[in-house]
Design a protein that fits this description.
Blueprint: E1 16-21, E2 44-46, E3 51-55, H1 62-72, H2 97-103, E4 104-108, E5 115-119, H3 123-136, H4 152-161, E6 168-173, H5 181-197, E7 200-205, H6 209-212, E8 218-223, E9 226-229, H7 236-246, H8 248-257
Parallel strand pairs: 3-7, 3-8, 5-6, 6-7
Antiparallel strand pairs: 1-2, 1-4, 8-9
Length: about 260
């Protein structure tokens, strides 16, 4: 039975322990997303730590995988929390997380229904909705949050600062797209606070070597052959960034002349 938001438990994260593909639930193997090399009949992903970070090139299926996990957790594939649907849902009609979730099975201990699925594309509508609700139904004696009074990155950090004290599963799809390099450092500190509390599970896809380097996280690289455990120094993202930092002018000149 899922645990409600009013019934916190004392078990530490991770709560989602494992997901796997049930081939009998796939109606068309040639249709997306089931044609992705990632989704072989033996696809399985275990979560052994509170923080799991997935890296890989565009088109390998990272976002689709996160969408599927989000739907399994009870969130909308376009982003948001349980029971929340983005103000403008039309842009997400082609998302495939819902289709994928129908073919996935999950093992929870226990199932947590609190948390959030962050997508940079939908965060503005999320913030606008929450600001409107705070104005309409104020709670407590303090001022309403007013996330839109901040920059995108500041609003994003403030939004999750308010939620990192709560037990739940938090799914981040490329959060660095909302953050400057300095703000990525602030996000690392936020992740540490969530990690130290012990009751937040984070599953994140990112292209940022800064976020990939979070200590003691499970770092997985997604390729056409599936998922494999890596270190941050083994990722192409880190290697490219290192080459750029070693010689910015030469790196850019060589890149644009190829």
């Amino acid at each position: 039975m899922p645990y409600s938001r009013n019934r916190p438990i004392n078990l530490p994260a991770p709560y989602l322990k494992r997901i796997w593909l049930e081939p009998s639930r796939i109606t068309d193997r040639e249709a997306y997303p089931f044609c992705l090399p990632l989704l072989r009949d033996d696809f399985e992903l275990s979560f052994n730590r509170a923080i799991t970070i997935i890296v890989g090139e565009n088109g390998t299926g990272k976002s689709t995988l996160l969408e599927g996990i989000a739907v399994l957790a009870g969130y909308d594939e376009a982003g948001g929390g349980k029971g929340y649907m983005t103000v403008d849902h039309s842009w997400a009609l082609e998302k495939m997380g819902g289709q994928l979730s129908k073919a996935l099975r999950a093992s929870w201990l226990p199932k947590i229904t609190n948390g959030w699925f962050f997508r940079a594309e939908s965060f503005f509508s999320v913030a606008r909705y929450l600001d409107e609700m705070a104005q309409k139904y104020p709670m407590g004696g303090g001022p309403p949050p007013n996330f839109l009074s901040h920059s995108h990155g500041e609003g994003f950090l403030r939004f999750f600062e308010e939620r990192c004290q709560r037990q739940g599963i938090f799914i981040f799809d490329e959060p660095e797209s909302a953050l400057s390099p300095a703000r990525q450092i602030e996000f690392l500190k936020l992740m540490r606070r969530m990690d130290q509390i012990g009751h937040c599970q984070i599953i994140m896809a990112t292209h940022s070597p800064v976020l990939m380097a979070y200590p003691n996280a499970t770092l997985l690289r997604l390729t056409k052959y599936g998922l494999e455990s890596v270190t941050v120094r083994e990722t192409d993202h880190y290697k490219v960034l290192r080459e750029f930092c070693d010689d910015p002018d030469g790196f850019v000149q060589a890149a644009i002349e190829e």
